[in-house]
Amino acid sequence: MNKCLVFVLMLLMWAGSALAGDYVIGDGDLLKVSVWGVPELSVEVTVRPDGKITLPAAGDVVATGLTPVALSKELAVVLENFVKKPIVTVSVSRITNNRVYVSGGGVAPQVISLTGRTSLFKLLCSLGSLENVDLSRAYLLRQDGERKGGFYEIYVKGEFSRDFDLKAEDIIFLPTNERNKVYVVGAVQAPKYIIYREGMKVLDAILEAGGFTEYAKENSVIIHRQDKDQIKVRIGSVTEGKDVTQNVALTPGDYVIVREGMF
């Protein structure tokens, strides 16, 4: 074989390897196997559920778990019994293996097929509103048991240096933020729950609920904690600028109860 032609072929194999990166072949992927100079051995095959492909002459060969480059080398060894110094290239024509799984209750459970390299941040952006997700308790679980967190820091605080690429079969757990809600009830314009944020205080929550009604007793506000403690605060003193210490910091799960009175 012409040495120049061999060099060109090797360069193409290297380029294909660079494009393939570290992608790992999985069940269901469609592969294109090319054997230089032997068109009858050049085929497109689908990886079976048992992880194998079947090639003319070579028979069954395990493909799942290998990169395209590694499979090319494996096939070259197998085909040496039929072809002198075979040059084999493997490329992925269709990816069906690159799936991640989302569950936890914060968003609808779903299986997402990744069409290319995707980071955690990019995937979170594609899920729509994350209002009902507790990102501080969210995590990712890998097949090897590795667990990765930091969702809140990446998505909310913008610490993109902590972002990371997803891998096939990753499980992303996005729990509901039910425990992170603060409830404002009683004599406010729009009783509601508010998603807790760091540094939130009682007056912040009342204002987000529309503020006091006409008959609210501003100095008779109760914070009911999950541990059953009750904290009485005089928000009227805060708005009048007399005692800002009454503007107590809230914690997730607090109930802010504004009492009502005629006078």
From TrEMBL:
Occurrences of domain Soluble ligand binding (ranges): 181-228
Keyword tRNA processing on entry: no
Signal sequence region: 1-20
Cell cycle listed as a keyword: no
Keyword annotations of the record: Signal
Highest rank taxon of the organism: Bacteria
Residue intervals of the Polysaccharide export protein N-terminal domain: 20-92
Name of this chain's protein: Sugar ABC transporter substrate-binding protein
